[in-house]
Amino acid sequence: MKKTFIWGVSAFIIGLLLVAFGVGNNGFKAVYWQNGLKVDANIHQSKQIKGVQEIELKTSREVLIRRGTDAKVSVSSTKSSKVNVNFEDHKLTIDSSYYPSFIMFDDDFSQPQVEITIPENVHLKTVTTDGDADLTLEDVDVETLDAENNYQSGDLTLSHVNLKNALNLSRKTYSDITLSDVRAPGLAVETSGDLTISHSRFEDQDSTILNRDNDVDLSFNKWKSLNATVDNGDLNFRDQAIKGEFIAKVANGDIEAQIDQKSKNAIIATVDSGDHTIYGVDRETYGNRNQKNAVLYRLTANNGDVEVTY
């Protein structure tokens, strides 16, 4: 009881000192510890990156790479969450440091963010990330997007992005992934977050999807072939153009599929504990999978339903 009282009094005194320190520096301010108490403040910096070819991200801050008129990086951060920018030999490196912030009374502090603009005539060779950044790419061309860290918690959003090489996110790389109007030879993705892919094309290589714990939603995409596995979640797809075969397996969840009633389409629906409905009829198969140029959909739900509509 005595120790608890002493700790409580100590914490109260420290709190008063921190408040006094913040108030004594032009009002209520956040304070942080870096070899002593310091008052936090916003930091804004920008740097020209003409001739940039590679981008390496070693930060957990939010990062946006988008099309712009100039090759430039702009950073908004704070002294306690400083973002470091280095540009050398056509390579831009972003990393960050963090010092614990004790009090945040000031609403004017911005969330640390990095924005990189790339001119239309610039094609990036690589974008590499090994942190936990929420990464967004908009309207840019990249040869390779690489994630070095096997386990990241950030979200990935690609919009109007062209990749020369296959998009490989097969090492549990990101949380939620959103791909819109993305073009790449193929796709390999493994995630535990929501996966949404729309209006994208992966027509040169076989593609794979593995989702551990959330839903997969596919709409208006083109594939050479696709093997999609969902452990705990639903798989929804519509308007998928397939050259070869679409294999879908869901362990605990439902499959809802919109497949055109074309003569070349063949469907096999298998359930262990659930219902299978193809075009409003309780059946397991549809079409002739042995015909020339047949497109086969193999849909399996171990503990859930399979429903196919047109």
Note the topology:
Elements: H1 2-23, E1 31-33, E2 37-39, E3 42-48, E4 54-58, E5 62-67, E6 72-78, E7 83-88, E8 91-96, E9 101-103, E10 113-118, E11 124-129, E12 135-138, E13 141-147, E14 156-163, E15 167-174, E16 177-183, E17 187-191, E18 195-198, E19 201-211, E20 216-232, E21 235-242, E22 245-252, E23 255-258, E24 265-271, E25 276-278, E26 285-286, E27 295-303, E28 306-309
Parallel strand pairs: 4-8, 4-11, 5-10, 5-12, 11-13, 12-14, 13-14, 14-16, 15-17, 16-18, 17-19, 18-20, 19-20, 20-21, 20-22, 21-23, 22-27, 23-28, 24-27, 25-28
Antiparallel strand pairs: 1-2, 1-9, 3-6, 6-10, 7-8, 24-26
Describe the structure.
- This protein has 2 domains: 41-151, Pectate Lyase C-like (3 Solenoid), CATH 2.160.20.120; 155-310, no CATH class.
- Helix content is 7%, strand content 56%.
- It has one helix at residues 2-23, and strands spanning 31-33, 37-39, 42-48, 54-58, 62-67, 72-78, 83-88, 91-96, 101-103, 113-118, 124-129, 135-138, 141-147, 156-163, 167-174, 177-183, 187-191, 195-198, 201-211, 216-232, 235-242, 245-252, 255-258, 265-271, 276-278, 285-286, 295-303, 306-309.
- Mean pLDDT is 84; it is low at 5-28 and 104-110.
- The strands form 2 sheets. The chain has a 25-stranded mixed sheet that branches. The protein has a 3-stranded antiparallel sheet with strand order 2-1-9, covered by helices on one side.
- The termini are far apart.
- The protein has 310 residues and is mostly beta strands.
- A hairpin with a 3-residue loop joins strand 1 (31-33) and strand 2.
